[in-house]
Amino acid sequence: MRHALLLAALLAAAIAPAKGKMLTVTVSNPLDAPRAGELVAIPDCPGNWLVHDAKGRLVPSQPAHDGALLFPVALPAKGAATYTLTPAQLPLTYQTIACGRVYPERVDDVAWENDRVAFRAYGPALQKTGERAFGFDVWCKRATPFPVVEKRYFDELSRGVTYHQDHGNGLDCYKVGPTLGAGTPALLLDGALLMPWAYQKAEILDNGPLRFTVRLTYPPKTVGTAQNVVEERLISLDAGSHFNKTTVTYRNLPAATPLAVGLVLHDKGPTLATEGLIAYADPTDRPGKNLGPIFVAALFPTPVQETRPLPIPAADRKAAGADAVGLEDLIERVKGGWVDFDVAIATPDAMKQVRTVARVLGPRGLMPNPKTGTVTDDVASAVKAAQAGKVDFRMDRTGNLCVPAGKLSFEASKLVDNIRAIIDAVEHERPAAAKGVFVRSCTISPSMGVGVRVLVKE
Asked: Is-contact 298 278, C-beta < 8 A?
């Protein structure tokens, strides 16, 4: 657990230092363990400063948005260290460790990172799609002290290289969905969470090299009888820390209201709850891939009054638009002979259980498959694609494609549109090396009936 550092300076922390004067600051560590790399904040130090340790070595520093000066310290157990602060004419450039930005190109994500971990919060463009994602997402990092989020987004959006796979520096294997994810706050009213959904405005206040700070403002909402209640989160991440610091305020909330902080539980794995801590060993979204757990936790400055699991509301589970949502209950229905659906979509962590009905779903072409996009963490997009009429096709050994184009109950114009779309999709997949006529023939037929040849002109 991280603890606040105790400052013992020649000038009291509440007194502003004289402008242009050199300062000497002594930082003490009351713990029995050494501490290295933690940031201290010297208040009322605006402008540019040079920080040196007792051996005269330059220490990286950063002026914060609130006028404080930030720099990392190295302290022995039960010991202290002295640092000298000298005014500087110009700012020095240090290696960036903590940073982030808004990504409008990825539905307004706000993503930030340091040398240990990365996080993101979801924005208004995602909310407009109807996908309900409320909580903080966690991106794992390894083997690098440098920023990687910018490249992950670029590779995903420009090169089709997914950040859900590890390409050498970690990956996104944490599943948020319609939950509070990794330590997101929410008001608790009559035993139910008031989910915050996506931020409305993001203002970056500090952007490295040692601290990232963003202020997220959420749309006004009704809380009980209170109107236009506005939530604001001030989130900061320091170099060397696994934890964000989140300060939450609510405007126009006239009465005291319980505040909850949640960790999504993906199974019945190890959890821990003490007076000032809740923690969980998350199995990742691919528990069978030997990725190891993601340890998530929330720390509190005052004792926690209560910890208890809350089920995800059915409205949120069905928010993706699926006609039926579940796991064990749906599997039991399928075992009982229920196959009255066109597409089955599953998340990767559910596939172990889904395979128990593979003999029922497989022969009917209903078994979820990652190659067809029906095994995915982005369930909302998969459901929307299926409801829009998405079909998958593949060649058999003789070079034929069999693709469903509609039903006899469809209007003739709709059938024509679907057939044209199929032919266009096949032409779009023409290999660069293919020469001459690509589609040699086309036949339309009912499931059991005589086929009709169609003239296809390329």
From this structure: yes
- What lies within 8 Å, CB to CB, of 47 at 6+ separation is 19, 63, 87, 88
Helix (H) or strand (E) run with residue 144 in it: none
Tens digit of each residue's pLDDT, the chain (458 residues): 333 333 333 222 333 444 558 899 999 999 999 999 999 999 999 989 999 999 999 999 999 999 999 999 999 999 999 999 999 988 899 999 999 999 999 989 999 999 999 999 999 988 887 777 789 999 999 878 899 999 999 998 888 888 888 888 999 988 887 889 999 999 988 888 888 889 999 999 999 999 999 999 999 999 988 899 999 999 999 999 999 999 999 999 988 898 999 898 887 677 888 888 899 999 887 776 777 889 999 999 888 878 888 777 665 655 556 677 767 667 877 887 778 788 888 888 778 888 989 999 988 888 998 888 888 877 777 887 777 667 677 677 777 888 888 877 788 888 888 888 888 888 777 787 777 777 778 888 887 778 888 877 65
Question: Pick from 334, 388, 401, 389: which is nearest to 364 by CA?
Answer: 334
Is 257 in contact with 187 (CB distance < 8 Å)?
yes
Closest CA to 348 of 320, 366, 385, 373: 373
* 49-52 and 80-87 beta bridge pairing: antiparallel
Using CA atoms, how far residue 281 sits from 295, 297, 398, 436, in Å, is: 5, 9, 50, 57
HSE (side-chain half, CA atoms, 13 Å) at 5: 28
> Which pTM does this prediction carry?
0.69
How is the beta sheet containing 58-59 ordered, strand by strand? 6-9, 23-28, 80-87, 49-52, 58-59
Tokens of 198: 């996506």
